[in-house]
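Each field is listed here:
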Amino acid sequence: MGIRVCVAGATGWVGRALIPAIAISQDLVLGGAVSRSHSGQSLGEVLALPHLKLTISRCVEDALAVPTDVLIDYTSPHVVKSNVLHAISQGCGVVIGTSGLTEADYKEIDAAALRKRVGVLAAGNFAVTAALQLKFALMAARFAQSWEIIDYAHADKIDAPSGMTRELAHRLSLVRAPVPEVPIEETRGPKESRGVTLDGTQVHSIRLPGYIIAAEVHFGLPNQRLSIRYEAGSGAEPYVEGTLLAVRKVGSFTG
């Protein structure tokens, strides 16, 4: 028997791309689906996949009444933490694709996962190209001591900075702290114009119509500049490969 998976946010933007990929996988079994807006309906009818006979649950608590190995969460910042903690309490591993969790939230989730001896794998962005941006930025930070991040998203994205940008800033802080020419507290004029200081990095969030998801890390050295940019397209397919890789990996560690 394969890894038993439940998808929270099954009829959302990423969920609609994930479900067919899980359904055709040889080592994954779709055992649950959660969607508040389509609860009680047939998942196959909602997604136009007639072979799926699964009934959509209203909440994670209902869906996890069926034995489950891994919960995938692509819901909203309002409910992701409670979803994750409930899954952990049931002994499920969790893959988190929802942004909006804080550092304190992750510490609480880590402690709960360690107590139950399950794994939780979260990423600000599961696209392979986003992972490459992170890797290349960490390499660049070893040689450049000054950088800032610009975080782009659609106008109705309620969390800022994005989870991807938060992760990027945190991981960069593990390499070194950037060194500004003028300390932020010595800025003349509104200090907010210099963005927010996140794990030592200045981050500037843009939320406008016409944008999807993007992030730029700008490195500055005397007489030279380096920009590393990730930009998402309009489809959710890029997130599927990374998410399923995480599902297969999350059972191999705890915390």
Residues 4 and 68 are 5 Å apart (CA to CA).
